[in-house]
Amino acid sequence: MTTAEPLLTLDAVRKDFGARTALAGVSLRVAPGETVGLVGESGSGKSTLARLALGLLAPDAGTVRFAGHDPYRLRGRPARTVRARLQFVPQHPRGSLNPALRAGEAVATALRLHGTPRRDRPALVADLFEQVGLKPELVQRYPRELSGGQLQRVAVARALATGPDLVVCDEPTSALDRGVQARLLDLLTGLQERTGLAYLFISHDLAVVRRLAHRVLVLRNGLVVEQGPAAELWSSPSHPYTRALLDAATGGSRASDPITS
Ligand SMILES: Nc1ncnc2c1ncn2[C@@H]1O[C@H](COP(=O)(O)OP(=O)(O)O)[C@@H](O)[C@H]1O
Ligand SMILES: [Mg+2]
Asked: Where are the domains of the chain?
C-alpha cells in the first residue's frame, strides 16, 4: 500500500438504533500518519462512528474499509493481522481494564493475543511502559492503585502492543484534569512523531482536538456539518454549530484559552 492510500475509509455510512438515527451518511478518510479529529456535542454520533471504524458494529448503509478490509466481517487468520493494526483507546480505562490484572499483565495479555512468545513479553512490556512514560515498577499495580492519567497511559501501552497503524481514541482525555490531559496529548503527539501511526481522535472539546488534529470534522446529529484544517476551523468557523463548540471550548473567549495564551 502506498502512503497516498487512506488507511481508514468510511463512505456514506448510516447507522440507526430503532427510530433513532445515530449516523445519517458520513464519509471520512484517515491517511497513514495523519490525525483526524472528530468533534461534536454529546449524542452527535461520535462513539457510534468509532465502533463502526473498529468493526464492532455493522453499518446499515455505506461502507467501512480499514487497509482494504471490512473490519466487521474479518474472520480467521487475516482478522488477527488486520486487527493488530487497528487499535482503540477508550474514554474510561477503569471500565476497559480488567480489575483483577496488574497493569503489566494487561499489556502482556495484548501481546499474548497478538502471538508474542511468552519469553519475549516482559521486555516488551517494560519497553511499552517506558514509551508511555510510566515508571517500570507500575507494572505491578492493579487498576485501582493507579490514577486516571496513569490508567490512560496503560491503555495507550496496550494499544501500542500490537504495533498499530491506526489508533481510534474516543474521548481519551475527557475524564482527566486539564494538566493531565495536556500531558497525555503530548504523549500521543510524540508517539506519532516516532512511529508514524495515525489517529482518529474523538472529543466533544474543540480545544483538545485542535491540539493534535491535522484535519477536523464537525459532527452534528449524525451528519458532518463542517470540515477542514484544525487551525482554520478554530480561527474562522463557518457553521454556527462549530462556533458554538468553539465558544464552549473557550468559555466564550478565545483569548482566555489556556492553549493559545
Ligand atoms: N446501542 C445503542 N442503542 C440505542 N441507541 C444508541 C446506541 N448507541 C448510541 N445510540 C444513540 O445514538 C446517538 C449517538 O450516540 P453516540 O454515538 O454515543 O454519540 P456521542 O458519542 O457523540 O455522544 C444517541 O442518540 C444515542 O442515544
Ligand atoms: Mg461518545
From this structure: 1-85+168-261, 94-163
